[in-house]
Design goal:
The complex is a heterodimer of chains A (about 170) and B (about 80).
Chain A lengths: L3 E2 L9 E4 L6 H14 L6 E8 L3 E2 L2 E10 L1 H18 L4 E7 L1 E4 L3 E9 L2 H18 L2 E7 L2 E4 L10 H11 L2
Parallel strand pairs in A: 1-2, 2-6
Antiparallel strand pairs in A: 3-8, 4-5, 5-7, 5-9, 6-8, 9-10
Chain B lengths: L1 E6 L1 H7 L3 E5 L6 H11 L11 E4 L3 E2 L10 E5 L6
The chains are: A alpha+beta (about 170), B alpha+beta (about 80).
């Protein structure tokens, strides 16, 4: 049973978006709990990813980022990403949390955990998930740098774009 | 009929509103809502080819029909992660 959360409390939740600081342990706990409920001990690996606010971007010295999201749609996008991953790599379980609001350099903006019977699939699914977040999650960062600020605009979000999805799979399996 | 329009990130900055209510003719589509909005806020025209849309918090195509009370959202290119 997939659980959704738009909250600032830390809980054993697979998918979440909100202003609370991120930590990996709750995601590891979430995919572990999920796998125990499903089949009990069949997972042999958990790969985690933490995305951080970097102090430079395109030659600019970054001071901080401000993340905005469409939370209800973001949770659906996360659910879609987790579903895509578990279809592509059977038995993979994904937990995905994204933070919103002002984030200082060095803070984590996104956390992902991928559990799988085998490490190769866990690595691939984790990489796939972050690539898909960047493609289809309705989240935007505004970069505040020395001398100004700018909205960062990346991909036009289209969950049905097959080429984008194939590109994420290609990167995940490289 | 009336729909709620939600705008995010730079689209919100360009219009000065995160949320607004607009009248739309019966049978209207998300595209019609967008064209009205772009007429009202010419700065939005740059986004014609790069926006995504959502209808009641699900991604939707511009030709999707809207109904009274619907929430229509316009999303500039995303940059999460």
């Amino acid at each position: 049973m997939t659980k959704f959360s738009h909250t600032d409390s830390v809980s054993v939740t697979l998918l979440a978006i909100g202003p609370a600081p991120l930590a990996l342990e709750p995601l590891v706990a979430a995919v572990t709990k999920e796998s125990e409920e499903a089949r009990g001990g069949h997972h042999g690996a958990i790969v985690t990813f933490l995305g951080l606010v970097r102090n430079h971007n395109q030659g600019r010295r970054v001071q901080y980022l401000d993340y905005e999201a469409y939370p209800s749609l973001a949770l659906k996008a996360f659910a879609r990403i987790a579903d895509e991953a578990s279809r592509r790599w059977p038995a993979v379980r994904i937990a995905l949390h994204h933070r919103t609001g002002r984030l200082e350099v060095g803070e984590a903006s996104v956390a992902i955990a991928a559990a799988s019977p085998h490490r190769a699939d866990a690595y691939a699914a984790c990489r796939y998930a972050i690539e898909r977040v960047k493609q289809i999650a309705p989240i935007w960062k505004r970069e505040y740098f020395e001398g100004g600020d700018v909205w960062i605009e990346g991909a036009t979000a289209d969950p049905d774009d097959v080429r984008a999805r194939e590109e994420a799979e290609r990167v995940a399996c490289a | 009929m009336r729909v709620t329009v939600r705008l995010f990130a730079r689209l919100r900055d360009l219009t000065g509103a995160a949320e607004m209510t607009r009248e739309i003719a019966p049978g209207g589509t998300i595209g019609a809502v967008w064209r009205d909005l772009a007429g009202e806020f010419p700065a939005l025209a740059d986004y014609e080819r790069s926006i995504s849309a959502a209808l009641n918090a699900d991604y939707a195509r511009m030709d999707a029909e809207v109904h009274d009370g619907d929430e229509v959202a316009f999303l500039p290119p995303v940059s999460g992660g």
